[in-house]
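About this split. The held-out portion is used to measure sequence recovery: a designer receives only the structure tokens and must propose an amino acid at every position. Recovery is the fraction of positions where the proposal matches the reference. Here is one held-out target exactly as it appears in the evaluation file.
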């Protein structure tokens, strides 16, 4: 059984699409422990991967905001001990919320959950001016914590110089290059899933 924890260099980096591709490539279940706002990312994965098993969130909030703020708006506090990996004998793709240092409460961040998941990280980096800095800062954090990283998915039009310097410093394996699409369909997910299978082995 394989598990992967999909996180990113920031919000709206493409984690949900990357998670759908991983689910399709591995025939995996999907789980997003914390959902803030609507529509839920789980619904998007259901649309892109028909038949995928989706496990319910540990926390689900109405406000589209950082988890700590969304919880506070409902008079709640996120307890990391209440976030338990679903019981499944299948492969599992876990999608984080925002970037690695998105706060869960006044003490914990989303990346603090990684040891509980016991899953190597798939890092998603969308390419924009400043993304080198944001990606390398994320790499430094993961390196200092000693968390395993399976590889990186670049999202957006290819930028060879940005990708080259990121891969040079991090030593990460490039898993995929996601091009820009006007809309994402199950057929597009299938296309990338085939490529990802070859990279994951």
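Reference sequence for scoring:
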């Amino acid at each position: 059984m394989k598990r992967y924890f999909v996180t990113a260099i920031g919000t709206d980096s493409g984690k949900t699409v990357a998670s759908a591709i991983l689910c399709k490539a591995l025939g995996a279940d999907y789980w997003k422990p914390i959902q803030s706002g609507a529509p839920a990312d789980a619904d998007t994965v259901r649309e892109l991967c028909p038949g995928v098993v989706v496990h319910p969130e540990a926390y689900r909030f109405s406000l589209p905001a950082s988890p700590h703020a969304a919880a506070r708006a409902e008079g709640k506090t996120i307890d990391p001990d209440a976030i338990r990996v679903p019981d499944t004998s299948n492969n599992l793709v876990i999608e984080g919320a925002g970037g690695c240092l998105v706060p869960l409460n006044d003490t914990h961040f989303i990346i603090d959950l990684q040891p509980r998941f016991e899953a190597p990280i798939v890092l998603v980096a969308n390419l924009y001016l400043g993304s080198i800095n944001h990606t390398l800062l994320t790499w430094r954090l993961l390196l200092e914590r000693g968390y395993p990283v399976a590889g990186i998915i670049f999202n957006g039009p290819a930028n060879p110089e940005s990708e080259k310097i990121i891969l040079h410093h991090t030593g990460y394996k490039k898993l995929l290059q996601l091009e820009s699409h006007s809309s994402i369909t199950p057929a597009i997910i299938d296309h990338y899933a085939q490529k990802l299978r070859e990279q994951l082995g």
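Annotator remark: The longest strand covers residues 92-99.
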